[in-house]
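Minutes, project check-in
Item: structure for the 205-residue chain
Input as provided by the requester:
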Amino acid sequence: MNSTKCLFASLEIACQRPSVGKLVGGLLLCLLTACSSLLPEGKGFIESPWNSYTEAEQVFKQIVPYQTTIADLKLLKLDPLSNPNVTILNYSDVLRRFLPSSSINTEDLDAGVQECIKALSSCQGYEIDHRVTQRKRYGNFLADFFNFKRKVDIVGWRFNAVLLIKNNLVIYKLTGGQPSIHEHEESMNPLGPFQGSGESGVLGR
């Protein structure tokens, strides 16, 4: 008999006592049905002007190489000083991104990237990487509460982009990402709340 079955067997024995049976039975019924809504939820994100992948995509559609300026980017809330999703890439960062190995020929790169590389330190980049995820635990409340079995549903989206800027003018744009993220995590702990306690004891010696 595994640990989860042992837990339910113990509760079943307790229910045989008339004075405790109704209380335990009612509690067990609640935990097995409605109380799954009591499982914790979490949301991870960096503050951003966009509420969805589509919103971010629409903003970047307004950026046109050789037309959009740094001043225009600020109006689009793409200022690294105020938007925590924007990272400044210096010339070395640009080289590492577009020329990660000597086997890549510069002539094979986009014209805007070539121009940026030739401009040396006169060119810099903006990297945007924004991810929003929401984690929701689901399944059996008792198994989750006592850490025997835990299931997590993860949903969200991710948008990323690279802009290359020379003399305050955008000369290259690349966008991508995941419009929809849907992942599942599942962990099993046969010892439940005691999982890892033996290891901690050994490490603490």
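Outcome recorded: Strands lie at 41-44, 86-89, 123-138, 149-166, 169-188.
No further action items on this chain.
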